[in-house]
Every structure is written in structure tokens, then in C-alpha cells.
Amino acid sequence: MARRAFYSFHFKPDCQRAAQVRNMGVVDGNVPVSDNDWEKVTSGGEGAIKKWIDEQLTGRGCAVVLVGTNTAGRKWITYEIQRSWDLGKGVLGVHIHNLKNLDGSQCTKGTNPFWYATNGSTALAQIVSLYDPPYSDSKQVYDHIKSNLADWIEKAVELRGKY
After folding, report:
1. In angstroms, what CA-CA distances link 50 with 40, 71, 136?
2. In what order do the strands lie in the sheet with 62-67?
3. pLDDT value at residue 79
4. What is the Cα–Cα distance from 150 to 155, expressed in whole angstroms?
5. Which ranges of 67-137 would DSSP assign to H, the alpha helix?
6. Are 14 and 71 spatial neighbours (Cβ–Cβ below 8 Å)?
7. What CATH number is attached to the domain comprising 121?
8. Beta-carbon neighbour count of residue 120 at 10 Å?
9. What is the separation of C-alpha 120 from the centre of its chain, rounded to a whole number of angstroms?
10. Residue 11 belongs to domain spanning
11. Which parts of the chain register pLDDT below 70?
12. Predicted pLDDT of residue 27
């Protein structure tokens, strides 16, 4: 049985790239939220957003942060990373900038979002892995992620057990 993962990503610019990863079938991921559902959640304020994120993390063994151009430093992505870590879940990142969106375009590589979350006084960027597929061709990037994601998740869960 595939491990269950929570996917964290910057919705508007990266939802199409994230959908490719989520639909690979390698990992049982959380159900995508629609624009309308997210608007309902956010209209309830910070407490409602935190509650929704916490509910999405329930039953997940790992948080997979799909890193696009502007993922790092976003308030709710940082919350998802920190909350996942604090709950004892594996955490890892995957650069998705070279996956094409529906328009066929790629984006620029984003910075490491794990600098914004900590384990005590240590930035998670010094602990967790952020994978960068070694290809610029979208199909090769897709294939690389699909071939390795399950192993990356297992390594992240194993690593988290050491802290």
C-alpha cells in the first residue's frame, strides 16, 4: 500500500504542475481543493485555515512540498511545513519548475522553503532534503520524480524518526 502524503504548493501558479505529481499514482495524496472551497476556508480566517490544514495532515505520513518560483516564505506553506515537522511527519521538497503547465511553459527555480521552518534553532533547510531533478526537459523531470518519489518519501520519514 502506498504511503499517504500531504502535498504543499503555491496554488495559483503551480496547481497544474502539482497536479502532474499528485496524479502519478506513486503516493496516495490528499484530495485537491478547488478555488471555491479554498475561498470558503479562507473566509473563516486564520483559525479556519489552520484547522483545515491540520485536518488535511491527519493520517498522512509525510509532507511533500512542491517547490515552484514563489513557494518559499509563503505564510501557509511555512505553516504546513512547520506543522508537519512538529507532528512528527516526514518532510521533503521537490523542485517542479521544469514541469510544463498546460500552456507548455516552465518557470524559474524557486528558493528553498525550508529556511522558514525550524527544528529548535536549526533551519529545516539544514536537515530535510530538497530534490532538484537533473533535467530541463519536462518529460524527463516527470519521469525522474515518478521513479524516485516513493523512495524520497521513505527516506524523509526515516530521517524524521531521528529527530
Report:
1. 13, 18, 35
2. 28-29, 4-8, 62-67, 90-95, 130-131
3. 98
4. 9
5. 75-86
6. yes
7. 3.40.50.450
8. 5
9. 21
10. 4-160
11. 1-2, 28-36, 38
12. 74
**Residue in the block written with cell 539544514:** 126
Question: In sequence order, which residues have a C-beta less than 8 Å from that of residue 63 and are 6 or more positions away?
Answer: 5, 6, 7, 8, 57, 80, 81, 84, 85, 89, 90, 91, 92
pTM of the shown model: 0.93
Which of 30, 25, 63, 57 has its CA nearest to residue 156?
Answer: 63
**Is the separation of the CB atoms in 146 and 2 below 8 Å?**
no
Sequence-separated (6 or more) residues with CB below 8 Å from residue 140: 133
The predicted-structure confidence for 3-42, as pLDDT tens digits, reads as follows 899 999 998 899 999 999 998 877 766 555 555 576 788 8
Q: How many domains does the chain have?
A: 1
| Beta strands 118-119 and 122-123, pairing class | antiparallel
Q: C-alpha grid cell for residue 131?
A: 530534490
Locus of grid cell 504546513: 80
Burial class (CB in 10 A: 0-12, 13-18, 19+), 114: buried
Q: CB burial class (10 A; 0-12, 13-18, 19+) of residue 14?
A: buried
